[in-house]
Amino acid sequence: MNAFLNRPKKRNNALPTLMEIPWVEKYRPRKVEEVAFQNEVVSVLKKVVEGADLPNLLFYGPPGTGKTSAAVALCRQLFRNIDTYHDRVMEMNASDERGINIVRNKIKEFARRAVSSHLPDGSPVVGLKVIILDEADAMTSPAQAALRRTMERESRTTRLKWICQNENIDFDPLAIDELIELCDGDMRKSITALQTISSCHKKLVPTNIRQFLGALPDDVVEQFLAACRSSDHDQLYTCVESIRREGYGECEMRILDGANEFLQLLDFGTVVMEQFKVSL
């Protein structure tokens, strides 16, 4: 009866106080200068913060030496606003999936997202995005290869976009991807082509890139492959003649080099046709 009359005591459901926060988090460095016993690393990271030019960085060393803390502190100084930090920094720890799908989906999409060099209030901010990949050695081999390609491709794309913005060139983002693909990663060739095309066209679009570099449109390539699959030599002959008459830059270049593009295309098509027969 007494237990019924006396109300039960309320439980203390208050949130953990600052004293209950793990000391590892409580005393984690907030600035690069606070990273202890890593003088050489700190001096390099200071230059990164001062120049606001962030390359791809690889931190290695025994556990507990401050690898993750140094990376987080660097990002805190680059993106001082907490909202900007969460928007432009993606942290992946050891518990996350490390297969190739995480690179193709999560990392690739995050890297492709455009960011501004100004905040909504107009204040300047570093126009970069950062991916902190903790324990990168735990990634599978296919995921590491995919990540390397993403890093190389996005690095070139960023440089070319920066040149376009610096030269006040109106461009389609797909045109930059097309330029990188057709130039096969050659940065010098990409920049030279970019300068030449921009002098002839007011806006860079994929069609302009393909025309300048003499690349065949995708639909023409599909028609050529369809003619090869048909095993019909007359259809292949007609398709090759159509490509030759269009006068694409690569074909014209081979004429100047003394080659006969019609015979070369016909020979190539015949070889492809035979391969289709073998595969069937």
TrEMBL record:
Its cellular-component GO annotations read: DNA replication factor C complex; nucleus
Q: Where is the AAA+ ATPase domain?
A: 53-186
User: Can the keyword Oxidoreductase be found in this entry's annotation?
Assistant: no
The molecular function terms in GO held by this entry are: ATP binding; ATP hydrolysis activity; DNA binding; DNA clamp loader activity
What is an annotated GO biological process for this record, any one? DNA-templated DNA replication
Where does the source fall among the domains of life? Answer: Eukaryota
Going by the UniProt record, its keywords in alphabetical order are:
ATP-binding, DNA replication, Nucleotide-binding
Q: Which InterPro entries match?
A: AAA+_ATPase, ATPase_AAA_core, DNA_pol3_clamp-load_cplx_C, DNA_Rep/Repair_Clamp_Loader, P-loop_NTPase, RFC_lid
Concerning its family, UniProt says:
Belongs to the activator 1 small subunits family.
Name of the protein described by the UniProt record: AAA+ ATPase domain-containing protein
Record the organism: Acanthocheilonema viteae (Filarial nematode worm)
Phylogenetic lineage? Eukaryota, Metazoa, Ecdysozoa, Nematoda, Chromadorea
